[in-house]
Amino acid sequence: MIETTARAEAGVATRTSLTVVVCAYTEERLPLLVESLDALLSQLHATDELIVVIDYNEKLLTTIGERYARRAVVLENRCARGLSGARNTGVAAATRDVVAFVDDDATIAPGWVEAMCRGYGQPQVAGIGGYAQPVWPGRRPGWFPPEFDWVVGCSHLGLPRSAAPVRNFIGCNMSFRRSVLTEAGDFSTAIGRVGNRPVGCEETELCIRISQRDPSTTLMFDPNVVVRHSVSENRVTVKYFLDRCFSEGLSKYKVSGMVGRSDGLSSERDYVLTVLPFGVVRGLVDAVRGGGAVRRAAAGRSLAIVVGCAATVTGYLYAMTHARLGLT
């Protein structure tokens, strides 16, 4: 099924086998999807498998099915519409030791497959997540703080700079032992992205559930496992920034209700109390030292951190208030 690369012959017998699941829903991302799948096929070994799940789009299903016949398993989503349902369809079809997830607008960097598999040499590792580098449509907006790169589905400032245990992964670049997914259960369809709706946290809830089920296991973040994640034009606007922050607050409240507030907000407390204040101060210092456009951009980053944090908290409080009043 997978085309064998020249270096795929060595060490196959002892190497962790890999299923990569890529979920797609729109033809607008077709060029990015093709780039993502071709990059994966160039690295995957003959013992690996690539599964593409199309989320309720018959035309895209036909296009990808014809293009990647015999090189990948192309399936229609057999579960609830949305990213969680599509991922669950992929997991159900997976047959290898480890199941990895890459977004349809993300392209793996050289050495991704080897780095991902190498991390599973330690038996206590239940999952590995990697770094998502933003690929901006042109120049990065000067006002956009790197502490908020999660808004565009990428790794943010404040994550570990070397391999280290973490609470949860970013969804566009993560993997788990298949046995762990079988035991933990599906991605929740009560949260997560459906189409362009800017909500998420389904991978956060799953990661917390895995750790709660077996605290002896480790979820490891490895910054050497890299994907380049494309950022679309509509995601570099102030409106999207605020919408995504507000939606994150909604999602965090739902996750806290599912896994408990202590685990559901543990990473967020450290982020708000340490990462964000340093970001605000750094922006203000740069604004004082700089001039002209540099000063405006630096001040804009500090302002965006404050406003983004406020929008996220507002989303959380909105969801909490509606839940207590029985409006949701």
TrEMBL record:
Domain Glycosyltransferase 2-like per the UniProt entry, residue ranges: 19-181
Pfam families: Glycos_transf_2
Organism: Mycobacterium yunnanensis
Gene3D superfamilies: Spore Coat Polysaccharide Biosynthesis Protein SpsA, Chain A (3.90.550.10)
Protein name from the UniProt record: Glycosyltransferase family 2 protein
Lineage top rank: taxon: Bacteria
InterPro entries reported for this sequence: Glyco_trans_2-like, Glycosyltransf_2, Nucleotide-diphossugar_trans
